[in-house]
Description:
Elements: H1 5-10, H2 14-24, H3 28-38, H4 42-46, H5 51-61, H6 68-76, H7 78-82, H8 85-97, H9 100-112, H10 114-119, H11 127-135
Amino acid sequence: MCIRDRQISCDQHGTRSVQKIAELATDQNVLELFVSSICDSVVELVKDNNGNHVIQKCLHDLRPADKQFIYDAVIEHCVEIATHKHGCCVIQRCLDQANRKQKEELVNVIAVSYTNLRAHETPEHLVCRLLLEKKK
Length: 136
């Protein structure tokens, strides 16, 4: 794996290969290399039509500690991600796949960001409604 994994993740065909790596990587060295190749691009991948599937696959298949980099990025860029059509889906997957600590941190950020999220609510991105329903 190399730094180009971010570019491959955004490619229509490459995204499937990168998702397969996330699914099958069990060796800790391979996982660390994989995570290091995409960890600085989480927001970009989340907002990409193909890249968001890589992030969702990581949320589904990686252990909580190995996917913490996703939660860190989502928490840091909550409003930007939550107000994007693919980002909203990723946040829902984050809530679905989180351990207790990750879920608490994310829900707290969503609650603090409520006003900003509410301001971005549109018919296409019913962000707050979806997020707040998940929070219950």
